[in-house]
UniProtKB/TrEMBL annotation:
Pfam families: CMD. It comes from Nostoc piscinale CENA21. One of its GO terms (molecular function) is peroxiredoxin activity. Residues 42-119 form the Carboxymuconolactone decarboxylase-like domain. Keywords: Oxidoreductase, Peroxidase. This is Alkylhydroperoxidase. Gene3D superfamilies: AhpD-like (1.20.1290.10). It comes from the Bacteria. InterPro entries: AhpD-like, AhpD_core, CMD-like.
């Protein structure tokens, strides 16, 4: 298992990222994902900057929709950690059990139809092409 780097033992570079995570998320908590990535500070920094920009930066999608998309991709990719952390984040942004159930129904249906379309090698309809 990967060593988790706690704030107290972190380098100044890692502490700076942890401090930014705390400020951006308005929490004192640093989750295990970031503590694991801290084993390689350049990856920690790069990943945090991307997540910060995509998940909290300005955009047309509201924060709950962004979390729902993240859950959907995480379910499809089988990332238990990401499913758990983004489900918690979505619940904090207003997702309820009914929404979660509907989301999973859509994810399951999309995965099934994607596999059927790929298996049958169905050509894309001309009207759907952009």
């Amino acid at each position: 298992m990967t060593k988790l780097i706690e704030y107290e033992e972190a380098s100044a570079e890692v502490r700076a990222v942890y401090d930014d995570i705390r400020a951006t998320r308005k929490t004192d908590y640093i989750n295990n994902f970031w503590k694991a990535l801290a084993n390689h500070p350049p990856t920690l920094q790069r990943t945090w900057q991307t997540i910060k920009e995509v998940m909290t930066g300005p955009g047309e999608l509201d924060p709950l929709v962004r979390e729902l998309i993240y859950i959907a991709v995480s379910v499809t990719n089988g990332c238990d950690y990401c499913i758990s952390s983004h489900t918690a984040a979505a619940r904090a942004k207003g997702m309820n059990d009914a929404m979660f159930g509907e989301l999973l129904a859509i994810v399951g249906t999309a995965n099934m139809t994607n596999r059927l379309a790929n298996g049958y090698k169905i050509p894309v309809d001309e009207q759907f092409q952009s």
